[in-house]
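Helix-turn-helix domain protein (Calycomorphotria hydatis), 87 aa
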Amino acid sequence: MSETGESYLSIKKFARLSGLSESTVRRRINDGTLPYSQPGGHGTAIRIPRNAFDLAIPHSSEMSSEDTVQAPKLRGPAPQWRNRLPK
């Protein structure tokens, strides 16, 4: 079957077509955000449905402010050199 006709893809093919790394695809499978099938049971090949592309790649308009990563605020006093910067 050709790549365009397959209803289930291997992790490698799904990663290549979606632009995600294989480790990201595996991570999303493990945390439950990406559906998969393992027809042969535990320890066999994992197959991802082709229609899972919508779940794999978040759309920028759907991302909320909670999805953005912010640097943690450091504890303690501000360094003195910052007081000498022009405002």
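The beta strands are 8-10, 47-49. DSSP finds three helices and two strands in the chain. ok done for today
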